[in-house]
Amino acid sequence: MEAILETKHLTHTYSAGTPFERSALLDVDFSAYKGEYLGIIGHTGSGKSTLIQHLNGLLKPTSGQVLFQGEDIWSDPKRTRLTRFQVGLVFQYPEYQLFEETVYKDIAFGPKNMGLDEGEIDRRVHEAAYFVGLRDDQLDKSPCALSGGQKRRVAIAGVIAMEPKVLILDEPTAGLDPVGVESILGNIRDYHRVHNATIILVSHSMEEVARTVDRLVVVNDGKIPFRGTPREVFRHGAELEAMGLGVPQMTRVFHRLRELGVDIDPSVYTIDQAREAILAKLGKGAV
Amino acid sequence: MALKDITLGQYFPGNSLIHRLDPRTKLIAVALYIVALFLADFFLTYAIMFALLCLAIAVSRVPLRSILRGMKPIVFIAVFTALLNLFYTSEGPVLVQFWIITITLGGVFNAFFMVVRIMMLIAGTFLITYTTSPILLTDGLESLMGPLKKIRVPVHELSMMMSIALRFIPTLIEETDKIMSAQRARGADFESGNLIQRAKALIPLLVPLFISAFRRADELAVAMECRCYHGGQGRTRLRQLRYQGRDYLVLAFLLALTVLVGILGHMGL
Prior knowledge:
The structure holds 2 protein chains of 2 kinds. Chain A has 11 helices and 10 strands. Chain A is α/β, with parallel strands linked by helices. In chain A, the strands form 2 sheets. Chain A has a 6-stranded mixed beta sheet, with helices on both faces. A 4-stranded antiparallel beta sheet of chain A has the order 2-1-4-5, covered by helices on one side. In chain A, helix 3 crosses helix 4 (118-131) and helix 3 (103-113) packs parallel to helix 5 (148-160). The longest helix of chain A has 18 residues, at 178-195. Chain A is globular. The mean pLDDT of chain A is 88. By secondary structure, chain B is mostly helical. Chain B has a domain at 3-153 and 239-266. Chain B contains 11 helices and 2 strands, in the order H-H-H-H-H-E-E-H-H-H-H-H-H. Chain B has helices at residues 17-20, 23-39, 43-60, 64-71, 75-88, 105-131, 134-144, 155-185, 195-201, 203-226, 245-266; strands spanning 94-98, 101-104. In chain B, helix 2 (23-39) crosses helix 7 (134-144), helix 2 runs parallel beside helix 11 (245-266) and helix 3 runs parallel beside helix 6 (105-131). Chain A binds chain B through residues 14-15, 17-19, 53, 56, 58-59, 81, 84-85, 88-89, 91, 94, 96-99, 109-110, 113-114, 144, 158-159, 162, and chain B through 1, 4-5, 12, 63, 65-66, 178-179, 181-189, 203-204, 207-208, 211-212.
């Protein structure tokens, strides 16, 4: 598969040369493939936020490289800026960055900075609003008049309107109710499908990533100890727990079954997989 | 991001003698230090003050580099003052005379001592903020200003406001950093363009920052009221400030030094 975004030997040190010096990333080789839905998991302070801020050129590597479509994004300033439009980054609690008088203007901020013409901006704003489920009559409202969940949709639309090839979302569902979580994840899936974009979802909820992503990257202590399909990663249940990450409930049940001496596949992480594994174990095959 | 490197008022945790001094001692000591600095007159007295400053920095174990970095913004003021002193003092033998400019030996000395004085003033006061946590510092101030309560100065309220302001500086810096990153991710450009363009570019940063500052203030007020905060009356403290032996020693030492510098300075040394 073709890598769209890579890091090579990426190291980042905060406050170098002061008593607060701290390495957030150490020699990290990361890659995201074209069109995949990638999950990044890691607990607070593991370096995952530092990693994603390198992916669109917000942070400059202390050493190492970040490659977008095979080119070093720091090779010249124009490329760095271009990368920021091509690699969209939605921060945690993005609703706090809204500033314009109307929802429409706020979503248009990114496309306007790209230097697009009015017609194109208008098309993108409406399309982005549609993706995140905002109604047309909400576009003329002040962002302050919206509810928390709706504000977040506006903020996500503001990034989607730039039509990035890679969309990175840092905990997009934090603090939302279950219905809100489902609907935002659904919006992201739609964008993924329609634009054939690469999605990178940062989360600490195992259940959430297990359900949505094709591939998982685990960040811990500034390094990437595991990567692969959710099945491959969840096989390391014990190590993940030691990192304070935990595994989906279903995986935990199956790990426990193995501990109890039942010879069963421990990489199961959804209810469907669990049913199949149990039926296979009982020798009945799929029903 | 450069914002995180702002060191003004940044506390360096440590356990040196200076860290452990009572905050009131440190405040009084710095006041004495400033008085002495202004009493100093010539090489000997300035040398004594400089030795005192070096001793204090060495004892505090605050890296010299951090102190120097904090003094960077003052360089302009210091140079400006030096130039004024250089050109507008007419004492002693004339060294250079050119067009309307006259430089005298007295002017050179004045300029030099003024720069040294400003730098040492800043370095000395910085040392307090480097070695005292903001909370202790405001506690100390409140205690020192205690007598003003008699003439109805709301000392407690003022110091509470100060602690809260100090407490929220790092939070706001972090928030600024975050919002800046978020807007830069949408192509905002804070670094180029002329003055007006740059001022305009700040809108996407300032509006969310203000909104969040007000939101925080509101939440904090509610949280304080939930814990029955109602101002200073009858309020006791978790940490009681108490002078130790070392505090009296340091104060006596500084007082003696100030008197010494005052006498020597008066003699023009």
